[in-house]
Amino acid sequence: MNDDIKGTTNSDQDINDRHRVRMARKKEVVDAKIKDAQRVTGVIVINTGNGKGKSSSGFGMAIRAMGHGMKVGIVQFIKGAMSTGEEQFLRRFPDEVSFHAMGEGYTWETQNRERDIEKAEAAWAKGRQFLSDPTIGLVVFDELNIALKYHYLDVQKVIADLQARPEMQHVVITGRGALPDLIEIADTVTEMQVIKHAFKDGIAAQAGVEW
Amino acid sequence: MNDDIKGTTNSDQDINDRHRVRMARKKEVVDAKIKDAQRVTGVIVINTGNGKGKSSSGFGMAIRAMGHGMKVGIVQFIKGAMSTGEEQFLRRFPDEVSFHAMGEGYTWETQNRERDIEKAEAAWAKGRQFLSDPTIGLVVFDELNIALKYHYLDVQKVIADLQARPEMQHVVITGRGALPDLIEIADTVTEMQVIKHAFKDGIAAQAGVEW
Predict the structure, then answer these.
(1) Which residue from B51, B114, B201 is facing A187, i.e. has the nearest CB?
(2) For B23-57, what is each residue's pLDDT tens digit?
(3) Per the UniProt record, which residue ranges are transmembrane (chains A, B) (predicted)?
């Protein structure tokens, strides 16, 4: 308990009362916003930027969807030469998750553009299967933005396929450098920005954190 | 195939060759960076900002860790009045994941500061158990930043407990408004920034996407 010199009482009770009033006001605002947002439809979510959390957020959405009994389709572009924790884990649930990894590592590993294009097109063909299957509630296109940035896939073709998907199907697309045309047709877009990164302090990419 | 007027050939072969040279250079840079970052240690990761993906990235890291055979401890602050997809899913694995939800909804729902403090302290006590258990490879403190922002927990006490944890244990902390003192002691900090959000277009928060 503190009393200040002007005689007003800055007691715990006062703090608690002010908190109650402030939170009641906040609840009104939040409730009103929720009341205004009632449309239910499949959404396209993009996670881009140079920061951490783009792919891991996509996989977090996958388990959210699975927790609600939804089936999930996952296509990993670019990544896939190494066995990741998410792949090892999600392959435990073949009835709930269809997992397709492009399987050729990052493009600077292969240095072979023609092979990269071939692999990206094969991965997108798999993705189109998911996009035409209304029993799949969420499709994760991990690192698709990289394949689009390097023009391994035609963005207009990708957009057309996305827009032709079942009405209630959700999609999450990850990778730095999301193209403006893709951002345009997305519902929710987040830019993951680096504030600091352990890598710069000489700490290695580690299992359970980066892969 | 295009020939420009100066007679240089801008063929697919040229594009592919330039790609190979550019990617070889990129590989050198990336390989050198990886060579410099070799320290292996438990890291503290913070996901903050107003954008989407903070919590879902934390849960994505949880399944990455599980894929590598690590045990995971999760404490959900603030959230928990409703049953989320992530909770439903992760409770399937009681031998791999210890899940503790504070269970009182957002603070503007309760409007009761004393009860919120009590619940936050009880949740942190559970978190401290995880932080003193070297068999747990990753601890997720979901929405801890909110509890700190409202001063339901003392940030210096939280930092001391985090720094006393087992050397190889990773921690991820989520929630908007991460406090500067916490950012200071973290290894990797990402700010999720809103580029656009479906909610503003009148689309509801939906199962498998937001919860």
Answers:
(1) B201
(2) 888 788 878 877 777 888 999 999 999 999 999 99
(3) none
For chain A, the C-alpha Rg in angstroms (whole number) is 22
Pairing of strands A136-142, B97-101: unpaired
Residues of B in contact with A192 (CB under 8 A): 51, 53, 190-193
DSSP B209: T
Question: Is A167 at the interface with chain B, CB within 8 A?
Answer: no
User: Could you say which of B43, B46, B200 has the minimum Cβ distance to residue A209?
Assistant: B43
What's the complex ipTM?
0.84
CB contact under 8 A, A56 and B61: yes
In this structure, what DSSP letter does residue B204 have? P
Judging contacts by C-beta atoms under 8 Å, the chain B residues touching residue A196 are 183, 186-189
* pLDDT at residue number A6: 47
State the sign of the Cα–Cα–Cα–Cα dihedral A31, A33, A34, A38: positive
Closest CA to B107 of B84, B86, B79: B79
Residues 88-127 of B with CB under 8 A from A: 88-90, 106-114
pLDDT at A131 (0 to 100): 98
> Chain A residues with CB inside 8 Å of B45's CB?
52, 198, 209
Residue ranges of the domains in chain A? Answer: 2-35, 39-201
Rounded Cα gap, residues A154 and A139, in angstroms = 19
pLDDT in tens, A104-119: 655 666 678 888 888 8
> Chain B within 8 Å of A45 (Cβ-Cβ)?
yes
Note the pLDDT tens digit of each residue in B4-29.
444 445 688 888 888 888 888 878 88
